[in-house]
Amino acid sequence: MHPPPPPSLRMVIFEGFGALHQLGRLLLRAPSLLRQPRGKNQPVLVFPGYGTGDATTLPLRGYLRFLGYQPHGWGLGTNKGNLGRTLPKVLDLATALCAKSGQKLHLIGWSLGGVFARELARQRPGSIAQVITLGTPVVGGAKYTTFSAANKRRGIDLDAAEARVAKRNQTPLRVPVTSIYSRWDRVVAWQASIDPWNPHVAHLEVRATHSGLGLSPEVFATIAQCLAKKELTFGS
């Protein structure tokens, strides 16, 4: 497996065009999206990707609110990727949301946000209903992303980082997981979104750029259908 090429003007244009394309498709598919299964006020915590914040997940959260869920942004500003420093705050947030709603949390994580969602579920499986990730580098951390070259220049040992990810995954996830990925992804190598450790993970392929995943009508419909499952079990 190889990382995507480092960011370039061409890639930025490609990603930007992809997001605009998905926005147009989202509007065209609105009638069918509005007919997706309705929620029953279940709490959903949505994590943004690396270098972004809650503003990027507003369209998805707005859609989920329309369907009858209680969507929440993570409220921790820009996702800077510091798992060790930020995860305790995420754990506190999850505890508060579960206490307020009296229900288990559904987690959605875009890109690096999916890593936080997975680690929250690993540490608090009894509080989590399911995890849905969008273009998340499950394997290798930053090694198989466009940020790999920059991290190497900063002296980060990407092989060691990959080994740490593998070590964390020796503790299996005990909640249902859906990993949504795209072969059009130019930020995260799509193969890195395939979970080799947890046999109960469902892998679903869509056609969208990395930045377009949060606006894709296929992604929105898939999320709505996953959230509406009455009984979630391993292998769902």
Descriptive key words:
single chain, 8 helices, 236 residues, alpha/beta, disordered C terminus
Break the fold down into its secondary structure elements and pairings:
Elements: H1 9-28, H2 30-33, E1 43-47, H3 58-67, E2 70-73, H4 83-101, E3 105-110, H5 112-123, E4 128-134, H6 148-153, H7 158-168, E5 177-182, E6 201-206, H8 217-227
Parallel strand pairs: 1-2, 1-3, 3-4, 4-5, 5-6
Helix pairs in contact: 4-5
Describe the structure.
With 236 residues, the chain is of the alpha/beta class. The protein has one domain (9-101, 124-196). It has eight helices and six strands, in the order ααβαβαβαβααββα. The chain has helices at residues 9-28, 30-33, 58-67, 83-101, 112-123, 148-153, 158-168, 217-227, and strands at 43-47, 70-73, 105-110, 128-134, 177-182, 201-206. Strands 2-1-3-4-5-6 form a six-stranded parallel beta sheet, sandwiched between helices. The protein is globular. The relative contact order is 0.18. Mean pLDDT is 91; it is low at 231-236.
What's the arrangement of strands in the largest beta sheet? 2-1-3-4-5-6
Major pleated sheet: 6 strands, parallel
> What is the string of helix and strand elements?
HHEHEHEHEHHEEH
Please estimate the helix content: 25-40%
Question: What is the count of β-strands?
Answer: 6
Rg on CA atoms, Å: 17 Å
pLDDT average, as an integer? 91
Supply the helix-strand structural class.
Answer: alpha/beta
Question: What percent of residues are in strands?
Answer: 5-15%
Number of helices: 8
In the residues, how many domains can be counted?
1
Oligomeric nature of the chains: single chain
Which of globular, elongated, flat, extended, rod-shaped describes the shape?
A: globular
What are the low-pLDDT stretches, counting only 5+ consecutive residues below 50?
A: 231-236
